[in-house]
């Protein structure tokens, strides 16, 4: 399975959606922003995790089915698809069970469809990850990873503003 390029579409193709995302983020906050991102896709989950090596700590999860989200606040990075994004800015798979990159990876037990990007501080330091995930296989819109990379910038500005003293 070939990885999807995060730069397949020009940023200008998303201008209106990015402006709408920024407005939702400003007015509604992180929860509304994740809802906005999730409703653009068929993924069940959209989430933000913070890197706290060797763990990833859950910051916020949007569950389309609004079911109880288990209290797994920290998970070992090596057991998640985030592990692939320690060295690459993007990881996308339509089916983690069939994708040769993840066919033996423990993350496939939780999610088969996955589209995630690194979140970076404004100074370039790694913060964590923004991702969509689905328990079943899911065809991936080729442009979604690129869109997530673009909205990661204003999302990180919001996260940094929330954590500064």
Describe the structure.
- The structure is a single chain.
- The relative contact order is 0.21.
- This protein is an alpha+beta fold and 165 residues long.
- Helix 1 crosses helix 2.
- A hairpin with a 5-residue loop joins strand 5 and strand 6.
- The chain has a single domain, classed as Beta-Lactamase (2-Layer Sandwich), CATH 3.30.450.
- The protein is built from two helices and six strands.
Count of separate structural domains: 1
Taken as a percent bin, the fraction of beta residues is 15-25%
Structural class: alpha+beta
The CATH superfamily is GAF domain
Question: Residue share in helices?
Answer: 25-40%
CATH architecture: 2-Layer Sandwich
What pattern of helices and strands is seen along the backbone? HEEEEEEH
- Main sheet summary: 6 strands, antiparallel
Radius of gyration: 15 Å
CATH class: Alpha Beta
**Helical segment count:** 2
Shape: globular
Low-pLDDT sequence parts = 1-7
Terminal CA distance = 45 Å
Describe how the helices and strands are arranged.
Elements: H1 15-39, E1 45-52, E2 55-63, E3 74-76, E4 90-93, E5 113-120, E6 126-134, H2 144-163
Antiparallel strand pairs: 1-2, 1-6, 2-3, 4-5, 5-6
Helix pairs in contact: 1-2
Structure summary:
With 165 residues, this protein is α+β, with helices and mostly antiparallel strands.
Which key phrases capture this entry?
6-stranded antiparallel sheet; alpha+beta; Beta-Lactamase
